[in-house]
Write a structure and sequence with these properties.
The chain has nine helices and 14 strands. By secondary structure, the protein is an alpha+beta fold. A hairpin with a 4-residue loop joins strand 1 (64-68) and strand 2. The chain is elongated, with a radius of gyration of 24 Å.
């Protein structure tokens, strides 16, 4: 459940509005933010509009967005104030996620390059500031509060270098997906029309020869083909190959309702004949040192983080510095995180409201 009607979101909303107003004041440079009456009025309006929008959060929207851009201040796209504006494509944005009690703040202005960070409200009243985002952020919060976590590192260091490890891991993941394929083209929460259910049943009934022997051949072929593509990508990234410009640092392997060329080539070489699992995506990102896998329509991605002794698999992604802290937790070590209690210096009435609700 993304939104819980029984839950008190006042501390989350108050904090998010204070974050947004503070960022907007700093980034816009508008003299209006020196007027405390204006700040108080804008804050109350944003709290009211955010509260009204919170119950609309679902699996499509996932968050309530407050934004300042060239039009003015908006909540979920509805313009609330035109007195403050930013020029061109500059913006300040705050996204409130009720599911994990998170507040994502991002901004881009002429005086400051794009920046973004996430704040998570912990049960002790403190907040965690990090670049990490994902469905298992509570594992980090649990570690901070109780010293325990469900994070573990899986073994699997096969390969002479990182490229081989990526390729071998990717091939093993696809082999596992093909052992018991699933055909998900709607969210579990959405009502499934009869025709969709029939298509899924036909896919499951389709002939397949995914025996252990055939899948072994497929895994071997996919490892070889993926490694070739990764070597080409690595060369282009380093500028030793094609110099036509910037190259994305990742290899995308996917199935929509049929496998892409890389998967099809591996299947042909192995003699594999079956309906591939629908709506399945994989990104091998050399820059972030991860493999992201999403199996099914709008399924949350599982991120496989490369580390010395194997792979940390979780639903967390962010800057490598913060990911390294999560890896240290999984190793049983005690990294330090940026914890703080919120300050509402710019909006003191929110401070009073937060103290009453927390």
């Amino acid at each position: 459940m993304l939104y819980d009607p029984e839950k008190n979101y006042a501390p989350l909303i108050n904090f998010a509005v204070a974050q947004f107003v503070g960022a907007a004041a700093a980034m816009s440079g508008s003299k209006l933010f020196r007027d405390r009456k204006f700040v108080a009025s804008l804050s109350r309006t944003l709290v009211w509009a955010t509260r009204a929008s919170m119950s609309e959060v679902n699996w499509v929207t996932r968050s309530v967005d407050i934004k300042l851009d060239s039009d003015g201040v908006k909540v979920c796209g509805t313009l609330l104030n035109e007195d403050v504006k930013l020029e061109n494509f500059n913006y300040v944005a705050t996204c409130i996620g009720p599911e994990h009690e998170s507040v994502l703040t991002s901004a881009s202005t002429e005086s400051m390059p794009e920046t973004r960070y996430v704040d998570y409200r912990l049960d002790n009243g403190k907040w965690l500031r990090t670049s990490l985002a994902g469905n298992t952020i509570r594992d980090v919060g649990e570690y901070i509060l109780e010293g325990t976590t469900g994070l573990e590192i899986e073994g699997g260091c096969d390969g002479n270098d990182d490229l081989q490890r990526y390729a071998r891991r990717a091939a093993a993941i696809w082999r596992k997906l093909l052992e018991k394929p699933e055909y998900k083209n709607l969210c579990p929460e959405e009502e499934h029309p009869t025709e969709v259910v029939m298509c899924q049943m036909l896919a499951e009934m389709a002939p397949r020869n995914n025996t252990a022997d055939v899948l072994n051949k497929f895994e071997s072929a996919l490892f070889k083909l993926t490694l070739e593509r990764l070597k080409e990508l690595d060369l282009r990234q380093k500028g030793a190959g094609d110099r036509r410009g910037w190259v994305p640092p990742y290899l995308h392997i996917r199935v929509d309702y049929g496998p892409d060329l890389l998967l099809r080539s591996a299947a042909d070489e192995a003699g594999l004949d079956m309906e591939f699992p629908w709506k399945t995506d994989m990104n091998i990102d050399l820059e972030r040192k991860v493999i992201d896998v999403s199996a099914g329509y709008r399924a949350p991605p599982a991120t496989h983080h490369l580390c010395e002794e194997g792979w940390l698999v979780c639903q967390l992604a962010g800057e490598r510095e913060d990911v390294e802290k999560v890896i240290e937790i999984a190793r049983g070590n005690k990294p330090k995180f940026d914890l703080f209690r919120p300050s509402f210096d710019l909006v003191p009435e929110l401070e009073r409201a937060a103290s009453r609700k927390t």
